[in-house]
Amino acid sequence: MKEDLVLPATREATEDAALEPLLEVSGLTKYFPVRGGFPIRRTVGHVQAVDGIDLTVHVAESFGLVGESGCGKSTTGRLITRLLEPTSGSVSYRGQDISHATRKQLAPIRSEIQMIFQDPYSSLNPRQTVGKIISGPMEINGIAPAGGREKRVRELLEIVGLNPEHFNRFPHEFSGGQRQRIGVARALSLEPKLIVADEPVSALDVSIQAQVVNLLQQVQKELGIAFLFIAHDLAVVRHFSQRVAVMYLGKIIEVGDRESIYDRPRHPYTHALLSAVPEVNLMDEEAPQHERIRLAGDVPSPINPPSGCRFRTRCWKAQDKCASEEPPLVRLSGNRSGHLTACHFPEEPTTQGRAEDIVLDPALAALEESSEG
Ligand SMILES: Nc1ncnc2c1ncn2[C@@H]1O[C@H](COP(=O)(O)OP(=O)(O)O)[C@@H](O)[C@H]1O
Ligand code: SF4
Ligand SMILES: [Mg+2]
């Protein structure tokens, strides 16, 4: 990886710019119809994949979106990148409502919002050379960089830590981590301002995950690109995101700055997610072993979610009120501004006494050390 990342763009991540909203999502909802019946198939219900979420990503900020499989993270990412049309609610990019924008209306901002996918194997065309893959978006958008596209491809390969001479190779000649780097280079080719990264390291070996997270972090910081980083566990985004939202069954149940979410979480589900990391501390066998929360049962179906608080069927604190009243997402007393929780009976703001801080994987531990240093 080169020390200096340079893009031929006027893109600076200034401190002031960090407060400027880039993406604003309000009441965003996506219901997928469920069809059934014979002989006439009709809509018999809806999968409430995303159900009224609000979030803001600021310029050059990294925002983490975390939750178990099936809670609506990818759908949220696809709504934001407009691969899907929302059922209701709005998505605004730089103040412009793009929720129902047509292809033509989207054209000017298409290049500014890019997506990185989970599976580096299926997201790259096996028949195209790396050069072709990375320059593809430039061709489609008619972008001719100074010095030509091939020169730009070489620069991008260097930025993502690959050999610039390998632009004529095919995806199968690269490892999983390298393919994800190619995916990153492709996303960078249009000089985006926002990257939606949907579980970009979940398919990679744990030892490679930290390297790719490191690369993305460097890209975010040095090129000033905002990220919506989607992950299924809190460990990955911890190193990456300044703010984190936790999703459960289509809703955001807690959101806040990194310290609030990891050190002072209030929602029982956030506590459970934090304690779900393995309890053995490989780095220090003498470290005290703490209580762990085990989530009983499966995530309920998003076709017929529980009334009131959707987490109540798995929550150890649930009471009658939880079934009858949906808890609003609000700032609880004592919490920092921007730290919002949706729970009638929140946990104490501490993670003391649990194993959540233990990072089992040495690669992630190394990353943590380097990001603290
Ligand atoms: N195109 C679709 N049609 C019907 N249901 C869908 C579709 N896409 C996703 N879903 C459902 O929506 C819910 C949320 O899915 P998804 O956004 O992929 O979750 P996640 O990325 O958090 O695992 C799941 O129950 C999933 O089965
Ligand atoms: S509202 Fe009730 S069921 Fe939901 S998380 Fe809080 S205590 Fe648990
Ligand atoms: Mg997903």
Index terms:
binds iron/sulfur cluster, Rossmann fold, alpha/beta, four-stranded antiparallel β-sheet, seven-stranded mixed β-sheet, 373 residues, binds magnesium ion, globular
Task: Describe what this molecule looks like in 3D.
Keywords: ATP-binding, Nucleotide-binding, Transport. One of its GO terms (molecular function) is ATP hydrolysis activity. This is Dipeptide/oligopeptide/nickel ABC transporter ATP-binding protein. Residues 23-274 form the ABC transporter domain. Residues 1-18, 278-285 and 354-365 have low confidence and may be disordered. The chain has one domain: P-loop containing nucleotide triphosphate hydrolases (Rossmann fold). Helix 3 (130-140) runs parallel beside helix 5 (176-188). Strand 9 and strand 10 form a beta hairpin. The protein contains eleven helices and eleven strands. The protein has 373 residues and is α/β, with parallel strands linked by helices. The protein has helices at residues 73-80, 103-110, 130-140, 149-159, 176-188, 206-223, 234-238, 258-263, 268-275, 320-324, 362-372, and strands at 21-36, 42-58, 62-66, 88-93, 96-97, 113-116, 194-198, 226-231, 243-248, 251-257, 340-341. The site of iron/sulfur cluster has 12 residues, from loops.
